[in-house]
């Protein structure tokens, strides 16, 4: 496709970019039909118009399926930032009218919903009560993705473990989360009643998280024979429940299986560590009444 310069961004371009984003998230034209309320042929025409406007191929489509090109992935990333800037402008205008309207984008690591001190849930409840027209968008993300989203403006706030704070973001402790070492009822260690020493633990397979941890958590995992990895806590739970692995989980998350006698903590007085879960915002951020209302409701 012949390259060309984009003279200006019009309302029509914004519409096409929103269609492109929806198609990318759905993974195909047919899957996007219901969300967009238009036919596949109309989606195809819109995508062709956008590619002509930008002078580049954004996706491959055909019998082989739908896939973004390298240029398509880059355009999607830039369009996310642009949409965030447009939304920020809309919020600024609404704030001039003292109205709680607009988008509120929050990124959260998974499995915090079982945390008994439901500060985030209560704050979202209070925010919705004060602003019924606020559109709340929650994304379950890795800590690194949350930090990137805050830095580029796609997210207003995030909740993640405070392991290695990065410059440009403000971290405030929200929860102190305790993790213990668990095995399932299928595991040979489940019925043992004695304290487990390091040599015994090294004889069984364990799970190493592939996400970042603080020094205390890293030290605990170095005592184990880690033969599998998991990208999040749910993945760790899946492997523990096979009965072939032991692994660390937050106690509030594991409680649902402990109560059903499907899991138990191993030597909990010795084998545990704590993580600080922080609420994170961008440093030097512009005034945003929706974000401030949310932060106030957290009682930090």
UniProtKB/TrEMBL annotation:
Residues 12-69 form the HTH lysR-type domain. It comes from the Bacteria. The keyword GTP-binding does not apply. Gene3D superfamilies: Periplasmic binding protein-like II, Winged helix-like DNA-binding domain superfamily/Winged helix DNA-binding domain. Keywords: DNA-binding, Transcription, Transcription regulation. Transmembrane segments: none annotated. The keyword Protease does not apply. Belongs to the LysR transcriptional regulatory family. This is LysR family transcriptional regulator.
